[in-house]
Design goal:
A hairpin with an 8-residue loop joins strand 1 and strand 2. Helices cover about 45% and strands about 35% of the residues. With about 140 residues, the chain is of the alpha+beta class. Strands 1-2-3-4 form a four-stranded antiparallel β-sheet. The chain has a single domain, classed as Roll (Nuclear Transport Factor 2, Chain: A).
């Protein structure tokens, strides 16, 4: 019994930031801010706010080029509506951890209706974007 009490006290005294990520509503706020950067063509700001996982895969220059090319292909965003979100753990192809996956139904001037998927990872005490896909 004493061992159980010690374990509970230890867990309570530890930083909850490390043990339990905040709920996904905080991730949704980060996602909206990140998309505002993209929609205003502040690609470098979006990159700087992204996860270290993403930064290890792409340089800032490659990141900016990819979004310039995306804009040429699909046009300007007309509307974006969240269609699904889920708090997930240990996604395939990603390091272990807590993730939020968010899908948006998005309408672009050249492509029309499409779906965007954003993946955020709980990293360094906050949610950060680690993946973006235009489906």
């Amino acid at each position: 019994m004493k061992f159980l009490i010690v374990c509970v006290l230890f867990l309570v005294s530890c930083s909850s930031e490390k043990l339990i990520p905040p709920n996904k509503s905080e991730a949704l706020v980060v996602a909206e801010k990140w998309f505002r950067y993209l929609d205003k063509r502040f690609f470098l700001k979006a990159y700087n706010d992204s996860s270290n996982i993403l930064k290890k895969k792409l340089t800032a220059a490659a990141w900016q080029r990819s979004f310039f090319y995306k804009e040429v292909r699909v046009g300007k965003k007309k509307e974006r509506v969240k269609s699904r979100d889920a708090l997930l753990y240990n996604l395939r192809s990603f390091p272990p951890g807590a993730y939020t996956e968010i899908d948006y139904d998005t309408y672009y001037s050249k492509r029309g209706a499409t779906r965007e998927r954003l993946i955020l990872r709980w990293e360094e005490g906050k949610w950060r974007v680690c993946g973006y896909t235009l489906l």
